[in-house]
Write a structure and sequence with these properties.
Keywords: Metal-binding, NAD, Oxidoreductase. The chain is α/β, with parallel strands linked by helices. The protein is 35% helix and 17% strand. The chain folds into two domains: 202 residues, Isopropylmalate Dehydrogenase (3-Layer(aba) Sandwich); 139 residues, 3-Layer(aba) Sandwich (Isopropylmalate Dehydrogenase). The protein has a twelve-stranded mixed β-sheet, sandwiched between helices.
Length: 364
């Protein structure tokens, strides 16, 4: 059973935030080591500093590569300059450089087949910027490096509550012009496929939120619903994707209507994530759908306001581990099912679909 454990590559994120705290707290519980083989990409020195400063009882081994990671152990691959200093709560370009180095090493070893999934600790999106990283966040960077031409979809989720975004990290003034019929259809297709493949939902029901207040109020408050969103949805419905709306975001969330759907597609970042984080931030998970790689992250950020104080909850990070494991297993099951599909037993004809016709060679 040991060799069947999923190998989880964990990036250290911003060393001045709560990343190491939530990682170490998660794996201080020995039962977590029974579920997976965790490998941190970061710095043993920095990990030891956090462990001592926060008094977290979590042991780890130092390895050169994920191939050396032992079972029932937390391992650390050293990919950070030993001279880097931890200064809790401080935005620091050196911390950004360390975060990028860990991410790059995790991606490299994923490509080599040494890890199965990637779970990222939070980064500071400003300090990580460099010639090598000019992206709004993890999602866009991982799409570029591991997408193989596939487009990603950001999903924030807690159990069956899943919120996906048409647009992500862009200025508010650019939202309306960025949202097109084609973009909505792209995101609906990815969302639909993800709900089926990654979460095992046979016929997903997706709710689509409007862009304007009151769903545009018949054009009084904007024409995007009439001219862009509704036409996009109608075309996708014709392709077999079950989607409803567009719903006015305030009433949809406030009435609890969101509980009746497998997924919710919001038009922009704060429209979807503000209510999600109000309802589910403590153990919410950020999941990057649509890519060959399974990547998750806790729903919170670096949390500089509580970094180094021992106050960070590991619930969201633990859930990110669980989701990564579940999605990887679901994909493996689907892959196995497609290898030897059941042979077709009848022809799908409208006039005689009730008759069983064995798909055999005519012996006349």
């Amino acid at each position: 059973m040991e060799e069947n454990k999923i190998r989880i590559g964990i990036t250290q994120g911003d060393i001045n935030g709560v990343g190491y705290e939530v990682i170490l707290k998660t794996f201080s519980d020995p039962t977590m080591l029974e579920l997976c083989t965790p490998i941190i990409y970061g710095s043993p020195k920095v990990a030891a500093y956090h462990r001592k400063a926060l008094d977290v009882q979590a042991n780890f081994s130092i390895v050169n590569t994920a191939s050396e990671a032992g079972y029932n152990r937390l391992s650390v691959v050293n990919c950070t300059d030993d001279e880097v200093k931890v200064e809790f709560s401080k935005p620091d370009p050196e911390a950004g450089k360390a975060a990028l180095g860990a991410l790059e090493r995790a991606i490299e070893e994923y490509r080599e087949g040494l890890i199965d999934v990637i779970v990222t600790a939070p980064i500071n999106k400003h300090t990580i910027q460099s010639e090598e990283f000019s992206f709004p966040g993890h999602t866009e960077y991982i799409e570029e490096r591991l997408g193989n031409g596939n487009k990603s979809l950001m999903i924030l989720m807690k159990n069956d509550f899943r919120v996906a975004l048409v647009t992500t990290h862009i200025p508010v003034r650019e939202i309306a012009t960025t949202i097109t019929k084609e973009l909505i259809q792209e995101k609906l297709a990815i969302f639909h496929h993800c709900l089926k493949q990654d979460f095992g939902i046979g016929a997903p029901r997706i709710a689509v939120l409007s862009l304007n207040p009151h769903a545009g109020d018949g054009g009084l408050l904007g024409m995007e619903e009439q001219e862009v969103i509704i036409p996009a949805m109608k075309e996708m419905e014709e392709k077999g994707i079950i989607c409803y709306g567009p719903y006015a975001a305030d009433g949809f969330m406030g009435s609890g209507n969101y509980t009746h759907f497998d997924g919710i597609l919001a038009m922009y970042h704060d429209q979807g994530l503000a209510p999600f984080k109000a309802l589910a931030m403590e153990d919410g998970v950020n999941y990057t759908a649509g890519l060959p790689v399974v990547r998750t992250s806790p729903a919170h950020g670096t949390a500089y306001d509580i970094a180094g104080k021992g106050l960070a909850s590991e619930d969201s990070f633990r859930q990110a581990i669980y989701v990564a494991i579940d999605v990887f297993r679901n994909r493996q099951r689907e892959k196995a099912a497609r290898v030897n599909p059941l042979r077709k037993q009848y022809y799908e004809k409208r006039d005689d679909s009730d008759k069983l016709k064995l798909d055999t060679v005519d012996e006349d």
